[in-house]
């Protein structure tokens, strides 16, 4: 059995974020049930999901209760989130310095209708190493976000019942396939 990634369902603590500009605090909410999330109990993760190396487009994925906050902070959205599974072209900014890191597509996937079953966001950015590094560092500066461990998105999908064990093994085989026969 896979180890549990959560120490509890929802914690009582509500974490707030105050930016250096003194704006009102943000409360982290899960869009699934509008309950404040204790980030110590339900961590949000992020990672480059399109593979390493130079490419035209890189996909950075985030999943968990702080992903909505990350989306709002990094693309300058007000209170409302974009329509689910709809591409929006936006400037992607560092949440602290407000520096534009890139201009790319963003997608919002509210839970439970996402790969992991959690609230998720994808940033489709230019695939140069400097852009990828800047976006990953910016996500790391959002409270409640941490880099994902290898296979953690798939583990969360399995634990949420989105994939069964056969599908998890098949996905791993497909990702590591190097020949047509292996595919």
Automatic annotation (TrEMBL):
Gene3D superfamilies documented for this protein: Probable tRNA modification gtpase trme, domain 1 (3.30.1360.120)
Subcellular location: Mitochondrion
All copies of domain GTP-binding protein TrmE N-terminal, residue ranges: 45-162
One Gene Ontology molecular-function label: GTP binding
GO BP, sorted A to Z: tRNA methylation; tRNA wobble uridine modification
Family matches, as Pfam families: TrmE_N (PF10396)
Keyword terms, alphabetized: GTP-binding, Nucleotide-binding, tRNA processing
Gene Ontology annotations for the cellular component aspect, listed alphabetically: mitochondrion
Superkingdom of origin: Eukaryota
Family (UniProt): Belongs to the TRAFAC class TrmE-Era-EngA-EngB-Septin-like GTPase superfamily. TrmE GTPase family.
Protein name: GTP-binding protein TrmE N-terminal domain-containing protein
Source organism of the structure: Eleginops maclovinus (Patagonian blennie)
């Amino acid at each position: 059995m896979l180890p549990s990634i959560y120490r509890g369902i929802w914690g009582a603590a509500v974490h707030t974020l105050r930016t250096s500009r003194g704006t009102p605090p943000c409360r982290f909410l899960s869009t699934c049930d509008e309950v404040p999330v204790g980030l110590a109990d339900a961590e949000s993760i992020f990672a480059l999901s399109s593979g390493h190396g130079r490419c035209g487009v890189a996909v950075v994925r985030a999943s968990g209760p702080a992903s909505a906050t990350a989306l709002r902070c990094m693309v300058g959205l007000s209170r409302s989130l974009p329509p689910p599974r709809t591409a929006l072209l936006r400037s992607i900014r560092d949440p602290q310095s407000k520096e534009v890191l890139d201009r790319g597509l963003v997608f919002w996937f509210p839970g439970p209708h996402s790969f992991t079953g959690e609230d998720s966001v994808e940033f489709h950015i230019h695939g140069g190493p400097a852009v990828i590094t800047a976006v990953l560092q910016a996500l790391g500066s959002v409270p409640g976000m941490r880099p994902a461990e290898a296979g953690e998105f798939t583990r969360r999908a399995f634990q949420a019942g989105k994939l069964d064990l056969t599908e998890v093994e098949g996905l791993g085989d497909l990702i590591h396939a190097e020949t047509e026969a292996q595919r």
